[in-house]
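We were asked to recover a plausible sequence for a given structure. The inputs and outputs are reproduced exactly as logged, with field labels preserved.

PROBLEM: sequence recovery
POSITIONS: 413
GIVEN STRUCTURE:
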C-alpha cells in the first residue's frame, strides 16, 4: 500500500514537470514582439505626432531625433539614446513625420521575460524535486521501520537465543509486514524457555537426587571407616586388613564427592572471548536488556573497553531480569569513569536483602533468604561474576536501603 502511494506521488510530480515545461515553452513563444501592435504604434505616431494622448502603450518606447535628442518616452525604463538602445538590444524603427526622420526605440523585454520565466521554472523544478526527495526519504523510513528494523530485531533476538537468553520477548507489531513472522519467533522463544525450565528442573532433581544419594552413601561409609579404624587399633593381626578397608572407604567417599560436584562443573565450559569494543555498545546492551523501559536516561562516557559483547549482554540481562523479578520498580542507571574502569551502576528500589546474604549472592546456588518463594536457580549472579572476572572486570552488589545496587566494573583499554 505504501509503495502504491510513492508511485502515485512520483507520477503526479512527473506530470506537473511536463506541464510546467509546456507552459515554459508557450510563454517563451508569447514573449516575441507582436508585429501588428508595433505597426499600429508606428502609424499612430506618424499620423498623430502632435497628440501624444493617442499614442498606444503596448510597449515601452521612446522617440529621438536625428541629433539624438529625446522627444518622447512613455516609461522611465526606455533607452535615452541610439547607442543605449543598441546595447540593450532594443527594436529601432525609422519614423517619417512631415518630411523629418526620427527614431522609435522600443524596449527589448524579451530577455527580461525569459529570465523571469527561467527563475519561475527553476524554482518550480526545485520544489517538485524536494517533494520527490521527501517522498523517497519517507519511503525509506517506512522500509526501515517495516522491514529493516524488524530484521535487525530478529537478528539480535537470534543472537540472544543462541547465547541462552530466553527471558526477553521479541517486540512485535502485528500491523507490520513481518508481524506474524515475529510472533512465530516469540512463540519459539516461549517453547524454548519452557524446555529450558524443564531441563533446569530435571537438572535440579538430579542434583537433589545426587545429594540424597551422597548423604545416604556417606553415612554407612562413615560407619565402615569408624569400625575399621577401631578394628585396626584393637587387632594388630588384622590391622593391615582394616587399613585396606579404611583406604577403600576413603576412595568411595572421594567418588561420591566427585559425583556431587560433576553437575556444577559444566558451567566452566562456557567460552568467553573479550575484545576491544567502544563504550557506546554498553548503552545498546543496557537498552536491549531493559525491554520494559524501567531505566532512566543515562550517558555512557566515551572510551574503549575490554569485553565479550555476548557475555556482557548476558550480564546485563541477568541484572535487569533480577530487578524485574524481585523488585519490580523503576531502575536508576548511572555511568562514570574511575581509575582504569568504566563503572555502570544499576539500582532498583525494592526490598533490601539481608546484609548477611550479600556476600553469598555471588556464589553458586545462593539466593536471598527473603525471596525463597520466587522462582530462581541461584546461578545468575554467579555466572555474571565469572563472566566479569574473565573480562578483567568485576561485579559488586550493595544494599542501598531501600533497594539493591549492582556495580559493574568494565576494564578500559
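RECOVERED SEQUENCE:
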Amino acid at each position: 500500500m505504501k509503495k502504491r502511494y510513492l508511485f502515485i506521488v512520483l507520477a503526479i510530480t512527473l506530470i506537473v514537470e511536463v506541464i510546467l515545461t509546456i507552459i515554459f515553452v508557450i510563454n517563451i513563444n508569447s514573449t516575441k514582439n507582436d508585429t501588428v501592435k508595433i505597426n499600429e504604434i508606428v502609424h499612430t505616431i506618424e499620423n498623430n505626432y502632435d497628440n501624444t494622448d493617442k499614442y498606444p502603450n503596448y510597449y515601452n518606447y521612446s522617440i529621438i531625433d536625428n541629433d539624438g535628442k529625446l522627444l518622447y518616452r512613455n516609461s522611465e525604463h526606455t533607452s535615452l539614446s541610439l547607442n543605449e538602445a543598441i546595447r540593450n538590444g532594443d527594436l529601432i524603427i525609422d519614423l517619417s513625420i512631415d518630411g523629418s526622420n526620427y527614431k522609435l526605440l522600443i524596449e527589448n523585454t524579451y530577455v527580461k521575460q525569459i529570465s523571469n520565466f527561467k527563475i519561475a521554472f527553476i524554482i518550480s523544478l526545485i520544489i517538485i524535486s524536494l517533494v520527490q526527495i521527501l517522498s523517497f526519504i519517507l519511503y525509506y523510513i517506512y522500509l526501515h521501520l517495516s522491514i529493516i528494523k524488524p530484521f535487525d530485531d530478529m537478528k539480535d533476538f537470534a543472537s540472544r537465543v543462541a547465547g541462552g537468553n530466553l527471558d526477553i520477548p521479541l517486540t512485535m507489531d502485528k500491523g507490520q509486514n513481518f508481524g506474524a513472522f515475529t510472533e512465530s519467533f516469540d512463540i519459539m522463544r516461549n517453547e524454548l524457555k519452557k524446555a529450558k525450565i524443564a531441563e533446569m528442573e530435571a537438572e535440579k532433581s538430579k542434583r537433589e537426587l545426587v545429594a540424597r544419594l551422597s548423604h545416604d552413601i556417606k553415612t554407612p561409609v562413615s560407619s565402615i571407616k569408624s569400625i575399621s579404624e577401631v578394628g585396626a587399633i584393637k587387632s594388630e593381626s588384622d590391622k593391615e586388613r582394616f587399613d585396606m578397608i579404611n583406604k577403600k572407604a576413603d576412595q568411595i567417599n572421594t567418588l561420591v564427592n566427585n559425583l556431587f560436584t560433576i553437575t556444577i562443573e559444566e558451567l566452566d565450559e562456557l567460552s568467553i572471548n573479550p575484545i576491544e569494543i567502544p563504550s557506546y555498545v554498553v548503552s545498546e546492551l543496557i537498552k536491549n536488556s531493559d525491554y520494559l523501559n524501567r531505566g532512566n536516561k543515562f550517558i555512557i562516557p566515551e572510551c574503549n573497553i575490554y569485553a565479550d559483547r555476548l557475555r556482557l549482554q548476558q550480564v546485563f540481562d541477568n541484572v535487569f531480569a533480577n530487578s524485574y523479578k524481585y523488585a519490580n520498580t523503576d531502575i536508576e542507571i548511572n555511568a562514570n569513569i574511575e581509575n582504569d574502569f568504566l563503572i555502570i551502576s544499576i539500582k532498583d528500589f525494592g526490598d533490601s536483602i539481608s546484609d548477611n546474604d550479600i556476600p553469598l549472592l555471588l556464589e553458586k546456588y545462593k539466593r536471598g533468604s527473603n525471596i525463597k518463594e520466587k522462582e530462581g536457580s541461584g546461578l545468575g549472579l554467579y555466572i555474571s561474576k565469572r563472566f566479569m572476572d574473565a573480562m578483567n572486570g568485576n561485579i559488586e552488589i550493595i544494599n542501598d536501603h531501600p533497594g539493591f545496587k549492582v556495580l559493574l566494573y568494565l576494564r578500559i583499554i
